[in-house]
């Protein structure tokens, strides 16, 4: 009689892993692989990268997943290579070629066109995207040969820098708001130049204040001893480091963790001058308690709370 296979028991893991996602792997597949390597109970990523794209994919484990939304909202920075003169069905190398044209364009023409895409612009989401219509992602309609009308959305291109131009390849550095499709930006630049285009390569280098230079690949992660992997995890509050810090005494900390709004007095704590999002700690042991909104008249409104029984 065969022995039943024992199910591996997942363990609580808390922190943030900066992963350098490889080409050809979906963000969800990368997450699943990393979650298995840490044997973690709970994990999530902070915004997808297309399978053909590489670069920074922050992964959140345990209590850190409560703050993953902050990175979804954050600005992103990419380096991309735009292949002028060839248009594809997907706007990248994974699609079929639908149109080709000759490329005889000067750098001056390119700089003139790039200026049109800096700042606040309107962008129509691509059919090959995970946006849903009637409960179905758009890419399923696209694969069935169906094209649906999509409304243009406002996005912001904070930086659009020409790094190099060696026809027909255009290398750009782009810093943009959430919801920006770099594939569409490349296509629109190609249209404005009159030759069409698709993305030859796409690499994400920044997500908010997090940087690619501090990331690690799955290959290196797999080669490491299991215990050594945990040293790579940044603490949960790594996702909140750009927000002002508030420290609470034991009594206020207890009330905060119960979800109570607190009226902070100057005798209790040093309150930041500006209202807005803050990270909150217990003063005695510097335990992260969660995030909150600091409102007018020094009112502290709890937002997302940490389970202090966990080792975060």
Structural key phrases:
312 residues, globular, 8 helices, nine-stranded mixed sheet
Walk me through this protein's architecture.
- With 312 residues, this protein is α+β, with helices and mostly antiparallel strands.
- The protein has helices at 27-38, 68-73, 107-116, 138-143, 182-193, 218-223, 226-229, 250-257, and strands at 15-21, 43-45, 54-61, 76-84, 86-88, 97-100, 119-123, 132-133, 136-137, 153-166, 169-176, 197-207, 210-211, 245-248, 262-263, 276-282, 287-295, 299-305.
- Strands 1, 2, 3, 4, 7, 10, 11, 12 and 13 form a nine-stranded mixed β-sheet that branches. A five-stranded mixed β-sheet has the order 14-16-17-18-15.
- Strand 2 and strand 3 (54-61) form a beta hairpin.
- The longest helix has 12 residues, at 27-38.
- The chain starts with 14 loop residues before the first strand and ends in a 7-residue tail after the last strand.
- The mean pLDDT is 90.
Topology:
Layout: E1 15-21, H1 27-38, E2 43-45, E3 54-61, H2 68-73, E4 76-84, E5 86-88, E6 97-100, H3 107-116, E7 119-123, E8 132-133, E9 136-137, H4 138-143, E10 153-166, E11 169-176, H5 182-193, E12 197-207, E13 210-211, H6 218-223, H7 226-229, E14 245-248, H8 250-257, E15 262-263, E16 276-282, E17 287-295, E18 299-305
Parallel strand pairs: 3-12, 14-16
Antiparallel strand pairs: 1-3, 2-3, 4-11, 4-12, 5-6, 7-10, 8-9, 10-11, 12-13, 15-18, 16-17, 17-18
Radius of gyration over C-alpha positions, nearest whole angstrom: 23 Å
**Counted beta strands:** 18
Number of helices: 8
Distance between the termini: 44 Å
Largest sheet: 9 strands, mixed
Computed structural class: alpha+beta
Provide the succession of SSEs: EHEEHEEEHEEEHEEHEEHHEHEEEE
| Low-confidence segments | none
- Overall residue-averaged pLDDT value: 90
Name the helicity range: 10-25%
How much of the residues is beta strand, in percent? 25-35%
What kind of assembly state do the chains in view correspond to?
single chain
